[in-house]
Amino acid sequence: MTAPRITHVAAGILLRPDGTFLLGSRPAGKPYAGYWEFPGGKLEAGETGLDALKRELHEEMGITVTAATPWLVQTFTYPHATVRLQFFRVTGWDGEPQPHEGQSFAWQTPGALNVSPILPANGPILRGLALPPVLALSNAAGLGIDAWLARLDQRLARPPGQGGLRWLVLREPQLAADDYRALATGVLDRCRPHGCRVLLHGDLALAQQLGADGVHLPARTAAALLRRPRGIDWLGVSTHDAAELAVAQRVGADYALLGHVAETASHPGQPALGWDGFAALTMAGWPFPVYAIGGMGDDDIATAQAHGGHGVAQLSAAWSRA
């Protein structure tokens, strides 16, 4: 069987500081006319994805892109074509979007769309936009349970834009199973009133029993799965190389942690990926957001995004400012 011809497309996610993003409707005369999508278009001969993005957004809506970073790659087969979409997060542009091709535009809030239908290839992208730029991992092991819970309460009480916590991975491998269950139960009770999603670490059954928002798996645990677990809303996987990222893709992960990027006390003597190594892996193109982990602070967020990441995952740093 002949492999399908793949059309390469660059698409831009225009992001405003408040987190809203732009969708455009497909104009009459095109396949899926009236469906909503992220603006962009086909790569021309000799173009990079970024070159095509800048050209297409200028032609389609009259803006000049000034800041864009690579994000996800999604391959999707429609009845009329197989497309490989390279998505960029666009955070800077000159001009105001204008409908040069008869389309409509609508600014949207993650998780609260008010337009439809959405072009099928864009569904996973909308899910990725709900993830925060900083993913916090618990640190009861380093601080002690009582001290860490006090800092958790402090961060939960703050608004999201002022250090408030709305996503947490409860990772405490030093605890016995009964102790972890007790901690998880208490953490869920604390987090739910504040709208903070909690992902348990490594234990699918416990996450389902307690009604957690998801589960985060070590690569070896994910590798033993045949498919994405049923009944799990959010699924994350820890990875260290391309093979483990491929496992995350196979099991349908919503995101992956990749590292360690910088030298850390928790990995003595183990070589770090560094930013070049991180970029070499992320730029291969994955259909889910990838977080940099290992010695990451808030000042590393932009660097991670410039190297193809979604943001950073933090353990110690997540609680140093609480």
UniProtKB/TrEMBL annotation:
Keyword presence, Magnesium: yes
CDD domains (alphabetical): NUDIX_MutT_NudA_like, TMP_TenI
Domain Nudix hydrolase residue range list: 4-133
Alphabetical keyword list: DNA damage, DNA repair, DNA replication, Hydrolase, Magnesium, Metal-binding, Mutator protein
SUPFAM superfamilies for the chain: Nudix (SSF55811), Thiamin phosphate synthase (SSF51391)
Cofactor(s) listed in the protein's UniProt record: Mg(2+)
Enzyme Commission no: 3.6.1.55
Keyword Transport belongs to the record: no
Family, similarity comment: Belongs to the Nudix hydrolase family.
Name of the protein described by the UniProt record: 8-oxo-dGTP diphosphatase
Organism per entry: Jeongeupia chitinilytica
Organism taxonomic ancestry: Bacteria, Pseudomonadati, Pseudomonadota, Betaproteobacteria, Neisseriales
